[in-house]
Amino acid sequence: MAGFRLTKPYTMSKDDIREAAEGLASSLQREHGVRSRWDGDTVKIKGAGVDGKLSFHDGLIDVNVRLGMLAGLFQDTLKTEVQRYLDENIS
């Protein structure tokens, strides 16, 4: 199974991080049709061939995504898109 994991340190407030995480989840929903739901400080995403979570704790954002066979063909594109979002919206 394909997938990727990205981490990024942050110094933003918890509310700002949550808002940025919601923005990423909304972007993934618009662009790729994945659904999201919150569980504490973790947003879980799920869609056709995509299963992942984004959590934030101890000054670190952790994005872990597993991709099915077909979605795995787009692994590099998805990883680049998520990394760009983190770079532009997380500090």
Report on this model:
The protein is an alpha+beta fold and 91 residues long. The chain has one domain (2-89): Kinase associated domain 1, KA1 (TATA-Binding Protein, 2-Layer Sandwich). 42% of the residues lie in helices and 38% in strands. It contains 3 helices and 5 strands; from the N terminus they run E-H-E-E-E-E-H-H. The chain has helices spanning 14-32, 69-72, 75-89, and strands spanning 2-9, 35-39, 42-47, 50-57, 60-67. The chain has a 5-stranded antiparallel sheet. The longest helix is centred in the first third of the chain and has 19 residues, at 14-32. The termini are far apart. The model has no long low-confidence stretch (mean pLDDT 93).
Task: Give a brief description.
The chain is an alpha+beta fold and 91 residues long. Helix content is 42%, strand content 38%. It contains 3 helices and 5 strands.
State Rg.
12 Å
Strand content: 35-45%
Number of domains: 1
Give me the CATH fold name. Answer: TATA-Binding Protein
Looking at the structure, what is the overall shape?
globular
CATH class descriptor name: Alpha Beta
Helix content: 40-55%
Unreliable residue stretches? none
What's the CATH architecture?
2-Layer Sandwich
Strands of the largest sheet, in order across it?
1-5-4-3-2
Number of helices: 3
Give a quick account of the main beta sheet: strands, pairing sense, barrel closure.
5 strands, antiparallel
The CATH homologous superfamily is called Kinase associated domain 1, KA1
Counting DSSP E segments of at least 2 residues, the number of strands comes to 5
Order of helices and strands: EHEEEEHH
Summed over residues and divided by their number, the pLDDT gives a mean of: 93
Output the structural class. alpha+beta
What is the first-to-last residue Cα distance? 31 Å
